[in-house]
Amino acid sequence: MTRVGTALFNCMGGCLRSDGGYDFRRLQRAAADLDAAPALWLINEAKLWRANANVGLHGAAEALSDELGVPYVGVLGTCPRGPIPPAIVYDPTVLVLRTWWNPDDPYGYADKLNVARFAVRDSAPDGDSRAEFLTWVDHWHPDSGTIRRQEAARLSRYGRDTRLPVIGGGDLNANASGPHLPQRDWTVASSQRRSAEARRLPDGTWVADTEAVDHLLGYWDGDRRVAGCGYHAIAELAWQTGSATALLPTVNNNIDSGGAIIKDWLVANPAMVPYVDPHSYRVHIPSGDPANWPSDHRLVTAAFDLAETCPPLGGEPR
User: Fold this and answer.
1) Burial of residue 139, with CB atoms counted within 10 A of its CB: 0-12 exposed, 13-18 middle, 19 or more buried
2) 259: alpha, beta or left, given left = phi > 0 and alpha = psi -120 to 50?
3) Which end of the chain is more exposed for a tag (fewer CB within 10 A), N or C?
4) Which stretches of the chain score pLDDT less than 50?
5) CA-CA-CA-CA torsion sign (94, 312, 151, 265)
Protein backbone atom coordinates (compact mmCIF):
# COMPACT_ATOMS: atom_id res chain seq x y z
CA MET A 1 0.00 0.00 0.00
CA THR A 2 1.04 3.58 -0.70
CA ARG A 3 -0.63 6.34 1.31
CA VAL A 4 -1.67 9.31 -0.80
CA GLY A 5 -2.51 12.31 1.33
CA THR A 6 -4.92 14.70 -0.42
CA ALA A 7 -5.59 18.34 0.37
CA LEU A 8 -8.47 20.43 -0.97
CA PHE A 9 -8.20 24.20 -0.62
CA ASN A 10 -9.91 27.24 -2.07
CA CYS A 11 -6.92 29.58 -2.28
CA MET A 12 -8.84 32.85 -1.94
CA GLY A 13 -8.07 35.06 -4.92
CA GLY A 14 -5.07 32.93 -5.77
CA CYS A 15 -3.03 34.83 -3.14
CA LEU A 16 -2.87 37.65 -5.68
CA ARG A 17 -1.82 41.04 -4.31
CA SER A 18 -3.20 44.36 -5.47
CA ASP A 19 0.14 45.18 -7.12
CA GLY A 20 -0.08 42.07 -9.32
CA GLY A 21 2.36 39.96 -7.32
CA TYR A 22 1.53 37.04 -5.05
CA ASP A 23 1.67 36.54 -1.31
CA PHE A 24 2.03 32.80 -1.02
CA ARG A 25 2.69 33.09 2.70
CA ARG A 26 -1.10 32.70 3.01
CA LEU A 27 -0.88 29.35 1.23
CA GLN A 28 1.97 28.38 3.53
CA ARG A 29 -0.12 29.31 6.58
CA ALA A 30 -2.82 26.94 5.37
CA ALA A 31 -0.26 24.15 5.05
CA ALA A 32 1.56 24.85 8.33
CA ASP A 33 -1.04 22.94 10.36
CA LEU A 34 -0.45 19.65 8.55
CA ASP A 35 1.16 16.69 10.27
CA ALA A 36 2.29 15.16 6.96
CA ALA A 37 2.81 16.61 3.50
CA PRO A 38 0.01 15.64 1.10
CA ALA A 39 1.11 14.05 -2.15
CA LEU A 40 -1.83 15.71 -3.90
CA TRP A 41 -3.24 19.24 -3.65
CA LEU A 42 -6.54 20.16 -5.31
CA ILE A 43 -6.64 23.95 -5.41
CA ASN A 44 -9.39 26.36 -6.44
CA GLU A 45 -9.13 30.03 -7.41
CA ALA A 46 -5.67 29.92 -9.00
CA LYS A 47 -6.26 33.50 -10.10
CA LEU A 48 -3.97 34.59 -12.96
CA TRP A 49 -1.54 31.76 -12.19
CA ARG A 50 -1.20 31.20 -15.94
CA ALA A 51 -0.03 34.78 -16.60
CA ASN A 52 3.63 35.55 -17.30
CA ALA A 53 4.70 31.99 -18.10
CA ASN A 54 2.76 30.35 -15.24
CA VAL A 55 4.65 32.32 -12.61
CA GLY A 56 1.76 31.98 -10.14
CA LEU A 57 1.52 28.21 -10.54
CA HIS A 58 5.23 27.70 -10.09
CA GLY A 59 5.35 30.16 -7.21
CA ALA A 60 2.58 28.32 -5.39
CA ALA A 61 4.32 24.97 -5.87
CA GLU A 62 7.60 26.46 -4.63
CA ALA A 63 5.93 27.97 -1.58
CA LEU A 64 4.35 24.65 -0.63
CA SER A 65 7.67 22.92 -1.24
CA ASP A 66 9.44 25.34 1.09
CA GLU A 67 6.81 24.86 3.80
CA LEU A 68 6.50 21.08 3.62
CA GLY A 69 9.86 19.95 2.26
CA VAL A 70 8.39 18.28 -0.82
CA PRO A 71 9.50 19.01 -4.43
CA TYR A 72 6.01 19.87 -5.66
CA VAL A 73 5.11 20.58 -9.29
CA GLY A 74 1.76 21.64 -10.67
CA VAL A 75 -0.63 21.86 -13.60
CA LEU A 76 -3.40 24.35 -14.33
CA GLY A 77 -6.94 23.54 -15.36
CA THR A 78 -9.62 25.71 -16.87
CA CYS A 79 -12.62 27.74 -15.69
CA PRO A 80 -15.16 29.16 -18.15
CA ARG A 81 -15.90 32.10 -15.86
CA GLY A 82 -12.47 33.73 -16.16
CA PRO A 83 -8.78 33.41 -15.24
CA ILE A 84 -9.47 31.59 -11.95
CA PRO A 85 -8.87 27.97 -12.94
CA PRO A 86 -8.39 25.09 -10.56
CA ALA A 87 -4.92 23.64 -10.20
CA ILE A 88 -3.36 20.37 -9.13
CA VAL A 89 -0.05 20.42 -7.27
CA TYR A 90 1.55 17.04 -6.61
CA ASP A 91 4.64 15.29 -5.28
CA PRO A 92 6.44 13.69 -8.25
CA THR A 93 8.39 11.38 -5.95
CA VAL A 94 5.08 9.71 -5.05
CA LEU A 95 2.88 10.24 -8.11
CA VAL A 96 3.49 10.03 -11.86
CA LEU A 97 1.24 12.27 -13.94
CA ARG A 98 0.15 10.36 -17.04
CA THR A 99 -2.57 12.49 -18.61
CA TRP A 100 -3.78 16.07 -18.18
CA TRP A 101 -5.70 17.81 -20.95
CA ASN A 102 -4.63 21.37 -21.69
CA PRO A 103 -7.58 23.79 -21.98
CA ASP A 104 -6.63 24.83 -25.52
CA ASP A 105 -6.03 21.29 -26.80
CA PRO A 106 -8.09 20.93 -30.01
CA TYR A 107 -8.52 17.22 -29.30
CA GLY A 108 -9.83 17.68 -25.75
CA TYR A 109 -13.26 16.70 -24.45
CA ALA A 110 -15.22 18.85 -22.00
CA ASP A 111 -15.64 15.99 -19.54
CA LYS A 112 -11.89 15.37 -19.44
CA LEU A 113 -10.86 18.90 -18.55
CA ASN A 114 -9.57 19.26 -14.97
CA VAL A 115 -9.23 15.47 -14.73
CA ALA A 116 -5.78 13.95 -14.13
CA ARG A 117 -4.63 10.38 -14.48
CA PHE A 118 -1.91 9.42 -12.01
CA ALA A 119 0.17 6.35 -11.34
CA VAL A 120 1.64 5.57 -7.93
CA ARG A 121 5.41 5.41 -8.38
CA ASP A 122 6.20 2.83 -5.69
CA SER A 123 3.34 0.48 -6.54
CA ALA A 124 5.45 -1.39 -9.14
CA PRO A 125 8.96 -1.21 -10.60
CA ASP A 126 7.77 -0.50 -14.15
CA GLY A 127 5.24 1.70 -15.87
CA ASP A 128 3.12 -1.12 -17.24
CA SER A 129 2.21 -2.44 -13.81
CA ARG A 130 1.82 0.62 -11.59
CA ALA A 131 -1.48 1.25 -9.83
CA GLU A 132 -3.43 4.13 -11.32
CA PHE A 133 -6.21 6.45 -10.24
CA LEU A 134 -8.03 9.47 -11.59
CA THR A 135 -8.57 12.74 -9.80
CA TRP A 136 -10.63 15.76 -10.71
CA VAL A 137 -10.72 19.25 -9.32
CA ASP A 138 -13.54 21.69 -10.06
CA HIS A 139 -15.01 25.00 -8.97
CA TRP A 140 -18.72 25.17 -9.62
CA HIS A 141 -20.70 28.29 -10.48
CA PRO A 142 -21.45 30.45 -7.42
CA ASP A 143 -24.65 32.02 -8.75
CA SER A 144 -26.63 29.39 -10.64
CA GLY A 145 -27.96 26.05 -9.47
CA THR A 146 -28.87 25.24 -13.06
CA ILE A 147 -25.26 25.61 -14.18
CA ARG A 148 -24.01 23.66 -11.16
CA ARG A 149 -26.29 20.79 -12.14
CA GLN A 150 -24.76 20.82 -15.63
CA GLU A 151 -21.29 20.83 -14.12
CA ALA A 152 -22.24 17.83 -12.00
CA ALA A 153 -23.43 15.98 -15.10
CA ARG A 154 -20.04 16.50 -16.74
CA LEU A 155 -18.42 14.56 -13.88
CA SER A 156 -21.01 11.81 -13.61
CA ARG A 157 -19.08 9.37 -15.81
CA TYR A 158 -16.33 9.14 -13.19
CA GLY A 159 -18.70 7.72 -10.59
CA ARG A 160 -19.91 4.15 -10.74
CA ASP A 161 -19.29 3.87 -14.50
CA THR A 162 -15.50 4.08 -14.14
CA ARG A 163 -13.60 1.03 -12.99
CA LEU A 164 -10.53 3.00 -11.89
CA PRO A 165 -10.41 4.53 -8.40
CA VAL A 166 -11.39 8.19 -8.57
CA ILE A 167 -11.05 10.95 -5.99
CA GLY A 168 -12.59 14.30 -6.79
CA GLY A 169 -12.59 17.57 -4.97
CA GLY A 170 -13.77 21.10 -5.39
CA ASP A 171 -15.53 24.15 -4.14
CA LEU A 172 -18.96 23.06 -5.33
CA ASN A 173 -20.69 26.15 -3.92
CA ALA A 174 -23.61 24.09 -2.63
CA ASN A 175 -24.73 21.78 0.13
CA ALA A 176 -26.05 18.24 -0.21
CA SER A 177 -29.41 17.10 1.14
CA GLY A 178 -29.75 15.60 4.60
CA PRO A 179 -30.61 16.98 8.06
CA HIS A 180 -27.31 15.64 9.44
CA LEU A 181 -25.35 18.27 7.47
CA PRO A 182 -24.77 21.88 8.57
CA GLN A 183 -27.70 24.01 7.49
CA ARG A 184 -28.08 27.65 6.54
CA ASP A 185 -30.86 29.96 7.69
CA TRP A 186 -32.10 31.37 4.42
CA THR A 187 -34.24 34.00 6.14
CA VAL A 188 -30.98 35.64 7.25
CA ALA A 189 -29.07 35.23 3.98
CA SER A 190 -29.13 38.05 1.46
CA SER A 191 -31.62 37.88 -1.40
CA GLN A 192 -28.72 37.50 -3.84
CA ARG A 193 -27.36 34.44 -2.05
CA ARG A 194 -30.83 32.95 -1.63
CA SER A 195 -31.41 33.15 -5.37
CA ALA A 196 -27.96 31.67 -6.02
CA GLU A 197 -27.87 28.81 -3.52
CA ALA A 198 -31.47 28.10 -2.50
CA ARG A 199 -34.88 27.49 -4.03
CA ARG A 200 -38.31 28.69 -3.03
CA LEU A 201 -41.00 26.16 -2.17
CA PRO A 202 -44.68 26.70 -3.11
CA ASP A 203 -45.47 27.75 0.47
CA GLY A 204 -42.91 30.55 0.23
CA THR A 205 -40.18 29.02 2.37
CA TRP A 206 -36.60 28.73 1.15
CA VAL A 207 -34.50 25.56 1.22
CA ALA A 208 -31.00 24.78 0.02
CA ASP A 209 -30.63 23.93 -3.66
CA THR A 210 -28.90 20.57 -3.28
CA GLU A 211 -29.68 19.09 -6.69
CA ALA A 212 -26.16 19.42 -8.15
CA VAL A 213 -24.28 17.80 -5.25
CA ASP A 214 -27.05 15.23 -4.85
CA HIS A 215 -26.57 14.30 -8.50
CA LEU A 216 -23.09 13.08 -7.51
CA LEU A 217 -23.88 11.62 -4.08
CA GLY A 218 -27.56 10.72 -4.27
CA TYR A 219 -30.35 12.42 -2.34
CA TRP A 220 -30.89 11.77 1.36
CA ASP A 221 -33.76 9.38 2.04
CA GLY A 222 -34.33 8.64 5.71
CA ASP A 223 -30.92 7.42 6.77
CA ARG A 224 -29.05 6.87 3.50
CA ARG A 225 -28.39 8.26 0.04
CA VAL A 226 -30.38 7.02 -2.92
CA ALA A 227 -29.65 7.25 -6.66
CA GLY A 228 -26.87 9.63 -7.75
CA CYS A 229 -23.80 8.81 -9.82
CA GLY A 230 -22.18 6.58 -7.23
CA TYR A 231 -19.87 9.03 -5.51
CA HIS A 232 -19.46 8.96 -1.74
CA ALA A 233 -18.65 12.08 0.27
CA ILE A 234 -15.55 11.36 2.35
CA ALA A 235 -16.98 13.63 5.04
CA GLU A 236 -19.96 11.27 5.36
CA LEU A 237 -17.72 8.20 5.35
CA ALA A 238 -15.90 9.76 8.31
CA TRP A 239 -19.19 10.66 10.00
CA GLN A 240 -20.37 7.07 9.69
CA THR A 241 -17.33 5.97 11.72
CA GLY A 242 -18.52 8.15 14.59
CA SER A 243 -16.29 11.17 14.01
CA ALA A 244 -17.67 14.16 15.90
CA THR A 245 -15.93 16.66 13.61
CA ALA A 246 -16.48 15.09 10.20
CA LEU A 247 -19.36 17.36 9.24
CA LEU A 248 -17.81 20.68 10.17
CA PRO A 249 -18.51 23.50 7.71
CA THR A 250 -15.76 24.14 5.18
CA VAL A 251 -16.45 27.88 5.05
CA ASN A 252 -15.26 30.06 7.92
CA ASN A 253 -17.76 31.53 10.34
CA ASN A 254 -19.25 34.94 9.51
CA ILE A 255 -18.47 34.53 5.79
CA ASP A 256 -21.95 33.49 4.66
CA SER A 257 -24.89 35.11 6.44
CA GLY A 258 -27.23 32.52 7.88
CA GLY A 259 -24.56 30.00 8.78
CA ALA A 260 -21.58 28.19 7.32
CA ILE A 261 -22.09 24.93 5.41
CA ILE A 262 -20.05 22.32 3.59
CA LYS A 263 -19.15 23.72 0.18
CA ASP A 264 -15.77 22.06 -0.34
CA TRP A 265 -16.33 18.37 -1.01
CA LEU A 266 -13.90 15.48 -1.31
CA VAL A 267 -15.65 12.55 -2.99
CA ALA A 268 -14.67 9.01 -3.94
CA ASN A 269 -16.19 6.68 -6.50
CA PRO A 270 -17.08 3.07 -5.57
CA ALA A 271 -13.73 1.78 -6.84
CA MET A 272 -11.87 4.22 -4.56
CA VAL A 273 -13.98 3.85 -1.40
CA PRO A 274 -12.23 0.66 -0.18
CA TYR A 275 -8.90 2.49 -0.18
CA VAL A 276 -10.08 5.65 1.61
CA ASP A 277 -9.15 6.00 5.27
CA PRO A 278 -12.25 7.74 6.69
CA HIS A 279 -10.41 8.45 9.95
CA SER A 280 -7.97 10.66 8.03
CA TYR A 281 -10.64 13.18 7.00
CA ARG A 282 -10.21 16.57 8.62
CA VAL A 283 -11.53 20.11 8.26
CA HIS A 284 -8.78 22.44 9.48
CA ILE A 285 -10.19 25.38 11.43
CA PRO A 286 -7.86 28.40 11.34
CA SER A 287 -6.84 29.97 14.63
CA GLY A 288 -5.76 33.43 15.66
CA ASP A 289 -6.72 36.75 14.14
CA PRO A 290 -9.25 36.34 11.28
CA ALA A 291 -7.34 39.03 9.39
CA ASN A 292 -4.48 36.55 9.09
CA TRP A 293 -6.55 33.59 7.93
CA PRO A 294 -5.33 32.33 4.57
CA SER A 295 -8.79 32.10 2.99
CA ASP A 296 -12.51 32.39 3.62
CA HIS A 297 -12.59 28.61 3.08
CA ARG A 298 -11.00 25.99 5.29
CA LEU A 299 -8.40 23.44 4.27
CA VAL A 300 -9.84 19.92 3.93
CA THR A 301 -7.62 16.83 3.96
CA ALA A 302 -7.98 13.07 3.69
CA ALA A 303 -5.88 10.09 2.63
CA PHE A 304 -6.24 6.88 0.71
CA ASP A 305 -4.02 3.79 0.68
CA LEU A 306 -3.81 2.56 -2.88
CA ALA A 307 -3.14 -1.12 -3.42
CA GLU A 308 -0.68 -2.39 -5.94
CA THR A 309 -3.51 -4.39 -7.50
CA CYS A 310 -5.40 -1.35 -8.83
CA PRO A 311 -5.68 -1.89 -12.60
CA PRO A 312 -3.98 0.32 -15.19
CA LEU A 313 -6.12 2.53 -17.41
CA GLY A 314 -6.12 0.29 -20.47
CA GLY A 315 -9.64 -0.26 -21.73
CA GLU A 316 -11.10 2.77 -20.00
CA PRO A 317 -13.83 4.28 -22.21
CA ARG A 318 -13.05 7.50 -24.03
Assistant:
1) buried
2) left
3) C
4) 314-315, 317-318
5) negative
